[in-house]
Amino acid sequence: MSGQWQVAVDRDRCIGSGLCAGTAPAHFALVDKKSTPLHPLVDPDEAVTDAADCCPVEAILITDPTTGTTLAPL
Amino acid sequence: MSTDSELKPARTYPFGDPDRLNLNPIYEQLRRTEPLTRVRLPYGEEAWLATRYDDVRTVLGDARFSRAASVGRDEPRTHPHQGDSGMLAMDPPEHSRLRKLIAKAFTARRVETLRPRTQEIANQLLDDMERHGSPADLVEHFATPLPVTVICELLGVPFADRDRFQLWSEAIISTTSLTPQQIMEYLGNLHAYIAGLIAQRRERETDDLLGAMVKARDEDNDRLTETELVQLSAGLLAAGHETTVTQLPNFVYVLLTNPDRFAELRADPSLVPAAVDELMRYVPLGTAAAFARYATEDVMLGDVLVRAGEPVLGALASANRDDKVFDHPDELDFHRESNPHIGFGHGPHHCVGAQLARMELQVALQTLVTRFPNLQLAVAEEELPWKKGMLVRGLKELPVRW
């Protein structure tokens, strides 16, 4: 995997558990108590897919922007 | 700005014995006048206690506060034993490695698929309770078997063994109700029991969560060790029901002692999901703040400098009553526009079973108010027996009539 990853958060679905911001603080922050990606495109980093895999409401989606493939959650 | 933790005399904590589900008024006073205060618990080192919503969320959710750093420290605690708290003694990314193995079994989407079966179990239990006749103990007839059956079916643990593992599970929420020797013995029994179920799955695969975890380990040893597999499974079984088993009677107790709120749900059961979250905010499940987070660097919390290496306890129940976040915080209000309570915790250790607990509590309350619209306490409130020596507040029995 050489290209960047796309990070998206569905703020309607987000319940503000704080799991992502605590798991990957370089990539997510809580704004008005809901998760927000700090950068829409990031270099591959397992912390980002960990955050998406741990989200209790699957509000985070990590994709490969060139192919549209979902990288997390799987 | 106060910078020296040594200057202030520490308060004795917890602030007295728990009184039913009432939150000690000192929390309200501390939020106003001393939001970070020094406390000394019966065991372990002195700590900070955070009582305001924003500070508690920071302590629980900010990566500058660590649970892994508690390992090897004399943790502030209410009980003599200082056990290995498994995932709760880890930080990301170590913590994420285990958390993501189980997280997908507990997502909102997966939990919804369990709702019809949970409803069926609730209906059966209440049929049985009706046949038993009024009065009946709601703890025994409903609040215990419902979550236990659900977690057993999810994990793949035989419900028939419940008498044994329920006894042993108390070890994870006991502070002084069991002796340290009993706690060790019960945990040992629970782990041996789980190891037996794991061995069965290596003989023959199963499609339950325990089977999935065994498969995850056997396909890739780096994902979790054998000890982690056993501890994690035992933790899910024990935590998976101890909490809901306790919280459901607490919720019903609050509703029966606030008959207007019960009437509101009876008149409009569609309020139940909002009621469950409001009750999660309102009911202080824990008897005291626990599982201190250790600052990994100097951090300002409000006006106070927490130095690197110092432990901070976050008082969830106090945060949930902070009037900067919740209007009329001491009132039970099922119509709040937003309810960002932290009754399930916050950050990396946010309760993995939160969505399951929500669903179970919703099904339970909806079914109760519909089937037993005249539900009442069968004894005077002051006669209700409360548990002692546990991390959680709860009723031993809840006699009801209808």
Automatic annotation (TrEMBL), chain A:
Name of the protein: Ferredoxin
User: Does this entry carry the keyword Iron?
Assistant: yes
- Where does the record place the 4Fe-4S ferredoxin-type domain? 5-34
Q: Which InterPro entries match?
A: 3Fe4S_ferredoxin, 4Fe4S_Fe-S-bd, Fe-S_cluster_ET
Q: Which GO molecular-function terms appear in the entry?
A: 3 iron, 4 sulfur cluster binding; electron transfer activity; iron ion binding
The protein's required cofactors: [3Fe-4S] cluster
Species assigned in the record = Catellatospora methionotrophica
Q: Which Pfam families does the UniProt entry name for this protein? A: Fer4_13
Q: Which UniProt keywords apply?
A: 3Fe-4S, Electron transport, Iron, Iron-sulfur, Metal-binding, Transport
Automatic annotation (TrEMBL), chain B:
The UniProt keyword set, sorted, is: Heme, Iron, Metal-binding, Monooxygenase, Oxidoreductase
- Please give the residue ranges the record annotates as the region Disordered: 68-92
| A Pfam family that the UniProt record links to this protein | p450
> Is Protease set as a keyword in this record?
no
Q: Highest taxon of the source?
A: Bacteria
Q: Which GO terms describe its molecular function?
A: heme binding; iron ion binding; monooxygenase activity; oxidoreductase activity, acting on paired donors, with incorporation or reduction of molecular oxygen
Q: Where is the composition biased (Basic and acidic residues)?
A: 72-82
Quick one: a GO biological-process term for this protein? antibiotic biosynthetic process
Which family does the entry's similarity section mention? Belongs to the cytochrome P450 family.
Q: What is this protein called?
A: Cytochrome P450
